[in-house]
Amino acid sequence: MSLFRYSGLSAKVRATSGKLLTQEDFLRLSSLSSVPEVIAYLKKKPSYAAILEKEDERNLHRGQAEGLIMQSLFTDFARLYRFSNLEQRQFLNGYFMRYEITFLKAVIRSILTRGEPLTDAEEYREIFERHSAIPLRQALNADTMEGLIAALSGTVYRKVLSDVYGSSSRELFDYELALDLFFFSEYWKMVKKELKSEDQEAITQSAGAEIDAVNLTWIYRAKKYYGMSAAQIYALIVPIHYRLTRDQVKRMAEAADVDELLGVMETTKYGRFLEGEEPPRLEHCMDAMQEAVHAVLLRRKPYSAACLDVYLYRKEQEVHRIITAMECVRYGLPSDKIREYLA
């Protein structure tokens, strides 16, 4: 039954996946000496040519260039959405919340840091008009948190941000944490309540591994960089357990130092991904873990929502790596250093 429902979409995803950049492409990007050179190189690639072909790379400022790269992700999402049936769109509707959270974080960051206003977010316009209840223009025009919260009236995000705004701690970190916790909670509920059989099984593995990776990373950062107490760490982590047991989470949160924490991490299901790194780059290890999970999912369940989930994950990783490459090139980092960031 799943073969019948997903055969066409799976073929579409395989064809689209063939347009993803290769490791050789990223090695080439790391050797370029300017952002215009990066854009000129991407113009030759099928997944970016249509978006970049009319642009003069010599006159694009950084924000415009990054926006165009992000737009390629949204273009792929929209293309897959149009090709999907109602059941597959149910998954994509839940997945889309990721992009709303990304947008809201950017707006909040601009407001609280009094940075450059996000007056131009053209990459979000078309996709948000089709898939989001967030009023894009009103949100972009907000210059205070009160204004943003008012603009979000009628959306699920108003209460999330209002709760933080009414609390005693309302720094950028607090707003971003609240949005992340809300996303994972809602996404997990969608997976468990709305997806059917094989789709649910596949996305549970992907979402569960992502939640575990986030919790491991947050606990590690809390211990290494901020010296947080166990009580503070419990408030940070996503209250969902997949392959991390409650006892393991407790032992990690209450570890006396980073060495003890890493010792507990090595006993978890994800311990093998920490091997060979001294000291471990935890974000890199967790990326490797999620890629391994996705590779297995795609091999075992190609005719399920896994084909959508894996492609969108890989495309998002690609977009982030390209933007990282542009930033590195812009600041004149040597190519070997850029390759380290792109690894």
Automatic annotation (TrEMBL):
InterPro entries linked: ATPase_csu/dsu_sf, ATPase_V0-cplx_csu/dsu, V-ATPase_V0D/AC39_subunit, V-type_ATPase_csu/dsu_dom_3
Keywords from UniProt, A to Z, are:
Ion transport, Transport
- Write out the GO MF terms: proton-transporting ATPase activity, rotational mechanism
Q: Which Pfam families match?
A: vATP-synt_AC39
Q: What's the protein called, per UniProt?
A: V-type ATPase subunit
Q: Transport: is it a keyword of this entry?
A: yes
Query: Which positions carry the signal peptide feature in this UniProt record?
Result: none
